[in-house]
What we know:
By secondary structure, the protein is mostly helical. It folds into two domains: 12-97, no CATH class; 121-324, Orthogonal Bundle (Farnesyl Diphosphate Synthase), CATH 1.10.600. The chain has 16 helices and no strands. Helix 3 packs antiparallel against helix 7 (97-119), helix 13 (218-244) packs antiparallel against helix 14 (250-272) and helix 14 (250-272) crosses helix 15. The protein starts with a helix and ends in a 12-residue tail after the last helix.
Amino acid sequence: RTFALTIPQLPDPLGVVVGNAYLLCRISDTIEDEEALSPLQKREFSDRWIGVVEGSKDAHEFAQDLSGLLTLSATQYEHDLIINTPRVIRITQSFSTSQQQILQRCVNIMADGMAVFQEGANLKGLSDLEQFNSYCYHVAGVVGEMLTELFCDYSPEIGARKKDLFALSSSFGQGLQMTNILKDLWEDRNRGACWLPQSIFLACDFDLSSLSEHHTDPRFIQGLNELIAIAREHLNNALQYILLIPPHETGIRRFCLWALGMALPTLRRIYKRPTFKNGQQVKIPRRTVKAVVVSTSAMARSDIALKTLFFFLGRNLPRPSLISL
């Protein structure tokens, strides 16, 4: 839903490239999420997918083989996307060499990383923050880097700030991904995976393998709040990233602001309802989405107004404690 709103805000022809990049990433996600595929099959299809994007593997064969294995766990949209992989790739190949290289790098890192983490997926969680950060980088941080490269390729003025933007880009992606991980933790567990870091919860004397939907354990909530605090810090970096985009590039600013503006209220809902049992219970309502769109659009050119708004959106969220610093 977020990308359906945000991508049309980008100026042409940047929006076309980012839209295609989104589809490439969604194909990687579809491989990762398909419950019928074994870890070995996910590795094989991920490697083939990397080859398809690089031009060394046949897109038609890939689409035919993968679509035949998709089950009802995949949405109709995902079925259609896989079937239309050759069309997606034809569009990719119409871009400039530099743009294609940017997209190829992202898919390579993402698909390879997803396959690695799928091989070790379990309900015990990731071992520590280092492994958790690595997971977030491979599924989202690299997307932040890709978008930064595309923004800089589009605008020499933005390109002049590439070093500072790139330093914040993966943190931006991680903040959004952490929000999704927390919101979707029960859906992930139903698929046999837990992407939370064990070390954070063990420091609170809680074992993630004992987690159940009917939990009320304050030790789990303490660990959850710690991750909310870490996510907030990454989203603070996201705001700093956005403020580096020239104010007159309102389309790019809106693209980033809307994603950030929807993440913070989601974190607040998780914080206020830590015993939620599914993502729908903490998903922000349409009225909140509308409020974010209207307010951030009105303030897109004003750094002071944006700082004030996001201070308000992030108020009362916890700060990281010493266990995660």
